[in-house]
Amino acid sequence: MGEAGSSGRADALAAAMMEAPTVEEEAPMEEEEEAAEETEVEDDDDDEFDVEKKLQDDARAREEAHIRRAIELSLQAAQQGTAEDARRERHRPTTAAARGARAEELR
Q1: pTM of the prediction?
Q2: Average pLDDT, the chain
């Protein structure tokens, strides 16, 4: 019976060894898990990069819109100034004549 008992234990040990994963079998799983974790980290980095890029693009667009508006206002002011200068030039002889006439009246 001693032999049967040890044979049974040997069979059980052999069966357990067959079911247990070997170091070689475990390594690919760990590598796959590590690769998946690295991919997740890269995805997070990509997401953070995308968000940061979007914020920079939005800020750049606002700055460009602000610059365009400032240029538009500057052009409007220049056009108004030119129009006012032209009006003054048109009326300068009339104004000068009116001043001269008024000066004569006051003398």
Answers
A1: 0.40
A2: 77
